Each structure stands twice: as structure tokens, then as C-alpha cells.
Amino acid sequence: MTDINDKSMIPENGKGEEKERSAELARLAISSLEDKKAEDVRVIDIGGVSVLADYFIIASGNNRAQVQAMADEVEQRLGRAGAVPRQIEGYQAGNWVLMDFGDVIIHIFDAQNRLFYDLERIWKDGTQIEPEQL
Question: Cβ contacts of residue 45 below 8 Å, gap of 6+?
Fold first, then answer.
């Protein structure tokens, strides 16, 4: 029986189109974060080391209100592009908001929690890329 979620069954050209759509959503998310003055925006390409997603985007805000404003902007702009979040966690607390858009997962932290969780270290096997190179 074939698993309909098995990405290995997608033809090579489908994988390229899927990766380009992920990159497009990632660029849109980065633009949204930057519009709300996100700090230290990082992109990690985890597609080669995990089936979770193609990209992690990590950004910091200075306070709860800014973190929530960044999350709101990302959700609105990606929503207008047709992307629906699978899940959003941590919005109310506003110290770490996780936004799962399938192949793009966005982490928005306050400074203290970003240092504590250090996702860049945990996902060091992924490839860090400059947002401009996406």
C-alpha cells in the first residue's frame, strides 16, 4: 500500500517545485519579520537532515508585544499567499512562538528564551544560509 504522504513518491521535478514553494514562503516570512523589526533573523535549511521541514526560520523580538506583532504579520502575509498554519504554539505567552507552516517552521523568541533554547546549536547539522541567499 502506498503512503500518500511519502515524499519519495513525488517525481524529481515535483520536489524542486515543492522546495521552491518552501523558499518562497520562507522569503515572505523573513520579509514579514523584518517589517516588524525582528532581530538576528537566521535561516537553517534542514531538508537534508530532517523530514520535519525544509526550513527553520529563527528570529528575536525585544518584548512580548513585538514577538506577537511579528507572529501576527507572518500569519497574515503567509495567509494571503495561501499558506495555512498547521499549528501555532506559544502566542499567548509571547516568549517563544512556534509557527508550523509545513515545510517552513518559524520560531520567534524573546532574547532570553532564544539564548536558553539555542536552536542554532541543536540544528547545527542543517545548513545555515543568509536570508538574502534564499
Answer: 54, 55, 126, 127, 128, 129
In whole angstroms, give the CA distance from residue 90 to residue 127. Answer: 26
Q: Are 62 and 111 in contact (CB under 8 A)?
A: yes
Nearest Cα to Cα of residue 78 among 102, 96, 56: 102
pLDDT band at 33 (very low <50, low <70, confident <90, very high): very high
Query: Distance from first CA to last CA of the chain, Å, rounded?
Result: 36
User: What does the block give as the cell for 110?
Assistant: 524573546
Confirm if 122 and 105 have CB atoms less than 8 A apart: no
Q: Which domains does the chain have, with CATH numbers?
A: 10-133 (3.30.460.10)
Beta strand spans in 71-115 (E): 87-89, 96-100, 104-110
CA distance 120 to 38: 17
Name the DSSP class of 38.
-
> How far is the C-alpha of 80 from the C-alpha of 22, rounded, in Å?
15
pLDDT band at 27 (very low <50, low <70, confident <90, very high): very high
Work out the mean pLDDT of the chain and round it to a whole number. 90
